TrEMBL record:
The lineage of its organism: Eukaryota, Sar, Alveolata, Dinophyceae, Suessiales. It comes from Symbiodinium necroappetens. Residues 206-294 form the DUF7602 domain. Keywords: Membrane, Transmembrane, Transmembrane helix. This is DUF7602 domain-containing protein. InterPro entries: DUF7602 (IPR056022). Pfam families: DUF7602. The chain crosses the membrane at residues 7-38.
Amino acid sequence: MDTIICVAIITAGLVAFLCSGHAGVILVLAIFICIWLLCDLMKIYQYYRLGKDPEVVISSGQMPMRRGGDKKAAKVPDSMSEMAVDLERFRNKCCNLTLPSSLRDAQNLKCLQQKVLDCIKSLYKSETKPYLGEVQKLLRMTAPTKKDKDEARYVAAVCALKPELFLLVPPHCGNPPCILLRDPPTGFELWYEKLPQRCSQTPEEEAMRNLRESISAGRISSMRKVIDELYADRIEPTLNEVQERLRDRGWSYSDAQQAVLLYACQKDTYDLAKPTQNKQIVVLLKEPPRSFAGWAEGAGIIPKVSVPMESGFKSLLAAGRAPALRGGVAGAAQALQNISPHGSLGELRALLRAFILRGLLEYRDDELVPTNVLLKELDTLRQAPPRTPERKKSPGRIYSQI
């Protein structure tokens, strides 16, 4: 468009010069310059007010290109073919990894491939996605010798040599590499990371529905028991506390990391408090137990200690019957609860935190030990005579008045 205007101006100027002299040339040039500026103003109005970006047609026959430089692809790439290329590229990369001399023997290689197959099948049965790290961890746990444990490092290369049996999935979307089976076991159910199958809802709602339907009854029971235990212990059920207790119940690390999604699916039972600057996500019950007396341990909660608990703890220390307080506040509280069932786990944690804040306990390496201030109190407590319980005076009878 600009080129055409320039040619028209030059042509009109030559015609005016030949016909009418200098004044006509100036007049014609002024008219065409005004038209040129008007065209530019129209383009600016069209771009900024109407939201349209005029396309510039490329003379070479290519697709139109916008001013922003974004080219419209003439053909939309096939996502499935791209995925197949990525899988093949990742498998070739794993095939090029160097194997140790022990695995160059065909018999040893076949033996390790069978072990990997057994590990992946067990992960399938436990509804655990067979990430590369999970497979290696399971192999090392069952390995009888150090040599077998070292061979677990070459799982990806070993599986890449058996493409008819294993499917290696490269890392994507923040997930680690995964080893799938070409032929899944009979009765296998998909993991709870399902893609939406229906379009009647939004993708987020559909994904949450699939996730909720895929949770087994055993997992639902295990999740509820963890929250009930934390309520009974009066420990605020933050995400870290919940994940740690789920792992103690046999959950894998990857499953425990996604526990927050499983709790979020059950909106009728749980209420997830949003994280704040100094606080994690908290998994609360919609209907807490009637006997619940509030949190004794949690973020931002000032530890409060009852007089009987404080005197009982000091008596344990003075008598030398207190256990070694190792493993931080959580480990030390657990050790105390093992020998003294009085008080919940949250109350014992609050007791230890209060003693630390008051300068009565301090860390020495990984162990909590009494400070000099507390040692003096314990000496005084040892030297004090034992208290005899006072007998209640009964009114009795005045026999002289009988």
